Amino acid sequence: MRIVSLLPSATEIICSLGLQDQLIGVTHECDYPPSVRHLPKVTKTLIPETAASNEIDRLVRERLSKQTALYSLDIDALEELQPDLIVTQTLCDVCAVSADEVTSAACRLSGSPQVINLEPERLSEIFDAIRLVAESTGAQRNAGQLIEGLMNRVNAVVERSGKLRYNPRVALLEWLDPPFSCGHWNPELVRLAGGTEVLGKEGTRSRTLTWNEVVRARPEVVLISCCGFNVDRTLEDVPALQSVEGWKEIPAVKSGRVYVTDGSQYFSRPGPRLVDSLEILAHIIDPESSPLPEGAPLLLVNPQRESIPH
User: Which fold has domain 166-309?
Assistant: First the structure.
């Protein structure tokens, strides 16, 4: 089977199912596992790479208000690849090519490739997405083993968090300028890890906040996981937090429990490594009982000093 993935998370699912040798095309954002980076790219972004965070927010809102896509599909590249299966999504209008454009393109291709849409909003639905890809590719046995391993890790976190004497108030922020709450599966991850998410709600979209809302929520732990940004890019926006009115009075800031992680690789990518994201949260909440996943980037932002590795 010749497979094209239009999502970084789908690419990770496909490879985790042992189907990487059947993957023939990916998006410009697909970067894990590293071996997929050499594959032909079938998408491009319409947002400048050098845009500031508030400018990205403005461009996103503008294009969404006009119902125009933020990503474009390279039809010529797709036609040249002639896939049998295209994996895309209908969940978010920001992070992928529009579903209508994909469907239209598939109809124009010779062979009429199958198109499957992944739209998980909760952790359990990510396992459903893995099963859907497996059923479409004949990899059901691999899916069973993969999901069992992931569920064992989730259950281990839940067992440890259930023993906590206190569940700290957590604010998981998905953007800083302006601030956004977390959404979809992320509030659930906070709960499973032993925290109480104070701004986001399970199974709903992230929403724009005011900094006054963040300050009034009085989180005891703040995790900054900007959608689409790695740690270095996120750190460019962190110094501006010092000028936010009331920021220094937030309990998490006063106690030095403000963290930055890679929002592109982890919390915003609903694939197998969402379990790593859960383990990152568990480590932040209770580092003594929950180890940090191998290779997961996490910085502790000390309000009095420079950011230091954690």
Answer: Rossmann fold (3.40.50)
